[in-house]
Amino acid sequence: MSRTSLIGIPVGRLIRTVAIAGLVLLILLYFWTSPLTNCPPQRPQFKQLSDGHHEDNSIAEEKVEKPVLLLWVWPENYRFDLSDCKTIYNIDGCHLTDDRALYSSSDAVLVFHKAIRWYWYTLPPSPRPSFQKWIWLNLESPTNTRKIYGIENLFNLTLSYREDADIPVRLRLTSNKTPNKDFKIPKKDKLVCWIVSNNAASTGVGKRNTYYNELKKHVNIHMFGNAYAKRLADEDYYPTIASCKFYLSFENSIHKDYITEKFNGPLSAGTVPVVLGPPRKNYERFAPRDSFIHVDDFPDAKSLAEYLTQLDRDEDAYRRYFNWRRHFSARPHLILQNQEFVLAICTACDHVAKHKEYQEAHDIYEWFFN
């Protein structure tokens, strides 16, 4: 008679059963924990072609590690060379493309807010790939931003002039490694200048127009641009600003952090900006307090005009507005038409290359409009 276990099963059979069960368990544990079966979906690998497009290259030995940023729509239909990110800003961390055929393999998709319509077909298709991020691009102020209801919770990242955006966009001053004693103020033949291309009331320009109309009663202002005079050629933009002692850096609407190229332009050209926008403390987050003049520092436009006239006569006092140049440098935008879009797109490329973690932006309207 064969030996039996306490439960009445022959010992040999019990040993074989336990061994087989243990082997099956080990196999199941292996596949359950294997990275081949326990990982998020991965985007297909591809290589870049000479024409800027990509082809599937899953089997090829050489794999491109750079993330892909798909530009869903060209902002304002303004196009630039996709290599400008590296050429101008030394940003080369992602593959930037506008080829929608690469949507399913793109790590991030950049969506320009003004190109979205209420019927939504202008958005990328849903559901998006699980590894993909959508970036909301909007450089307009709340005054000039149209709400498109239903998109508030579609995006992973916000790209904006706001400092508290996920990806803030701004051309900033840079610190000099050693004090710069060689800066020379450009030759001036005009006292106050202003370049205005758009003065439509719908853009919220009421306050700046009111201030300008009062200021011109007390000081001569040289006007340029489509709104009041002839448009300047691109090559004349910075030389014209540099020829003025003061430049009216008047924003079209007043909002937190809404400080545009109207401020950076005169700083980089060697001219003192006279700013109308958010409070002085907001400007001082981005530039030394003695690099500009704020209209809020004066009780009225007449007092400001008198101060500008006084500085015109006092060369030493005027020069003190350039003392910051010893310690900082201001870089001009290299592309004049819609230059802010180039910087924004390149900044997004840099962010996508450096940040792989998952993120969601909830209720972008609650954040942006409040």
UniProtKB/TrEMBL annotation:
A single Gene Ontology CC annotation of this entry is:
Golgi cisterna membrane
What does the UniProt entry say about where the protein is found? Golgi apparatus, Golgi stack membrane; Golgi apparatus, trans-Golgi network membrane
Recorded metabolic or biological pathway in which this protein acts:
Glycolipid biosynthesis; Protein modification; protein glycosylation
Q: Which Pfam families match?
A: Glyco_tran_10_N, Glyco_transf_10
Q: Which residues form the Fucosyltransferase C-terminal domain?
A: 186-367
Q: Catalytic activity, per the record?
A: alpha-N-glycoloylneuraminosyl-(2->3)-beta-D-galactosyl-(1->4)-N-acetyl-beta-D-glucosaminyl-(1->3)-beta-D-galactosyl-(1->4)-N-acetyl-beta-D-glucosaminyl-(1->3)-beta-D-galactosyl-(1->4)-beta-D-glucosyl-(1<->1')-ceramide + GDP-beta-L-fucose = alpha-N-glycoloylneuraminosyl-(2->3)-beta-D-galactosyl-(1->4)-N-acetyl-beta-D-glucosaminyl-(1->3)-beta-D-galactosyl-(1->4)-[alpha-L-fucosyl-(1->3)]-N-acetyl-beta-D-glucosaminyl-(1->3)-beta-D-galactosyl-(1->4)-beta-D-glucosyl-(1<->1')-ceramide + GDP + H(+); beta-D-Gal-(1->4)-beta-D-GlcNAc-(1->3)-beta-D-Gal-(1->4)-D-Glc + GDP-beta-L-fucose = beta-D-Gal-(1->4)-[alpha-L-Fuc-(1->3)]-beta-D-GlcNAc-(1->3)-beta-D-Gal-(1->4)-D-Glc + GDP + H(+); an alpha-L-Fuc-(1->2)-beta-D-Gal-(1->4)-beta-D-GlcNAc derivative + GDP-beta-L-fucose = an alpha-L-Fuc-(1->2)-beta-D-Gal-(1->4)-[alpha-L-Fuc-(1->3)]-beta-D-GlcNAc derivative + GDP + H(+); alpha-D-galactosyl-(1->3)-beta-D-galactosyl-(1->4)-N-acetyl-beta-D-glucosaminyl-(1->3)-beta-D-galactosyl-(1->4)-beta-D-glucosyl-(1<->1')-ceramide + GDP-beta-L-fucose = a neolactoside IV(3)-alpha-Gal,III(3)-alpha-Fuc-nLc4Cer + GDP + H(+)
Q: Which terms are listed as keywords in the entry?
A: Disulfide bond, Glycoprotein, Glycosyltransferase, Golgi apparatus, Lipid metabolism, Membrane, Signal-anchor, Transferase, Transmembrane, Transmembrane helix
The record ties this protein, via InterPro entries, to: Glyco_tran_10_C, Glyco_tran_10_N, Glyco_trans_10, GT10-like_C_sf
What protein name is recorded for this chain? Fucosyltransferase
Organism of derivation: Triplophysa tibetana
